[in-house]
Design a protein that fits this description.
three-stranded parallel beta sheet, Rossmann fold, 2 domains, globular, alpha/beta, 13 helices, seven-stranded mixed beta sheet
Length: 363
């Protein structure tokens, strides 16, 4: 009798154990694929998204491709093999990444293109800032510094000599930024009051490349450059090194974007003219909320449908859901209120090396 009771007890324990295993929910995996960690912002955003996704109960895999297009595609393929159900991708090359993303989507993986468009209709969503508006605000800031419209200095006989410095040509955002820049400056080109004397693009948004490029432009133009419409703070600061070597820093207006600490510091020093603030603190939380909704089969709020043709300027089929966050132009006049007071950048970093008698009060 005792043996029978023992068998029954063991059977009950086994059943309960099996039931417990069967009822234990399987942790869902989400992959984060980054183009690189050399870009200042990406590692902190990777850490932020990882923490937010883990707080929602997901297991997180993170890969960084070091600007290697093939490696990024291989890493995406590998994460799909490891069973991720969602992917947030910062593409090194938005066209090349479509190959791996199409395969992932075919396997049922939800893919969000994060801040850089991936050129396929198979992404579940695209989250970024209004990059065309970024370009508009960069160009407006530089044109205002030149006194345009309305300046009597610049005429058809004496046009302002302007350099266009685009971002990485493989980053679709760089082309959207350029579209916005051209919207602003094209009327001045048409009227003859500005002349584009150089138009180049900066591979990988690399500051050292931008500096060398500007050195060559200044040599070719015999230093006769009146303004630079640069597409982000990193490249602008590289180009400012070349301008500084010729005594032109602070005399030649130059734009940027991202409101980096160094960019804002350059603005308060009177060297960089304008940056465009994109509050990236909003981006990672929004991306993780969107991914959570997608994986739970819920609608994602705030998106609109955009054709790929409109977003890329290429004859690509299909449309995608996209959400664009707002941007703000920042100059010396409002850097304190917009950047410092909001704690986007630390006071001490923005006002580094500024004389004490010129410092505003700490907020």
């Amino acid at each position: 009798m005792s043996r029978k009771i023992l068998y029954i007890t063991m059977l009950i324990v086994l059943v309960v154990s099996l039931f417990g295993c069967a009822s234990k929910p399987k942790v869902v995996k989400v992959g984060l694929s980054f183009s690189d960690f050399a870009t200042e912002r990406w590692k902190p955003e990777a850490d932020q998204m990882t923490a937010l996704l883990k707080a929602k109960g997901y297991e997180v895999l993170v890969q960084e491709a070091n600007h290697d297009v093939k490696l990024q595609n291989d890493q995406i393929d590998n994460m799909v093999t490891q069973g991720v159900k969602g992917l947030i991708v910062i593409a090194e090359d938005g066209e090349a990444a479509a190959t791996a993303v199409d395969k992932a989507a075919k396997a049922g993986v939800k893919v969000i293109a994060y801040d850089r468009l991936i050129k396929t209709q198979n992404i579940a969503a695209y989250l970024s800032f209004d990059n065309t508006e970024v370009g508009r605000q960069e160009a407006k800031g530089v044109m205002t510094a030149l006194g345009l419209p309305g300046s009597s200095t610049w005429t058809k006989d004496n046009p302002a000599k302007v350099v266009l410095s685009g971002g990485s040509p493989t980053d679709n955002n760089a082309h959207l930024v350029r579209n916005g820049q051209m919207e602003v400056i094209q009327p001045f080109i048409d009227s003859g009051v500005i002349k584009v004397v150089a138009d180049q693009w900066v591979d990988n948004w690399d500051a050292a490349f931008a500096e060398k490029m500007m050195e060559n432009i200044l040599t070719a133009q015999q230093n006769k450059v009146d303004a630079v419409i640069a597409s982000n703070d990193g490249t602008a600061l590289g180009e400012l090194q070349a301008l500084k070597a010729q005594g032109l820093a602070g005399k030649v207006p130059i734009s940027g974007q991202d409101a980096t600490a160094d960019g804002c510091n350059s603005i308060v020093k009177g060297e960089q003219t304008v940056t465009v603030f994109k509050d990236i603190r909003l981006l990672a939380p929004k991306a993780t909320d969107m991914m959570d909704a997608l994986l739970k089969g819920q609608p994602i709020s705030g998106t609109q449908d955009f054709t790929l043709k409109l977003l890329t300027g290429q004859d690509l089929p299909g449309s995608i859901k996209a959400l664009f966050l707002p941007v703000v132009q920042v100059t010396k006049a409002n850097v304190y209120d917009v950047i410092v007071k909001s704690k986007f950048q630390p006071y001490d970093a923005v006002y580094r090396d500024i004389p004490a008698d010129q410092l505003p009060p700490k907020p």
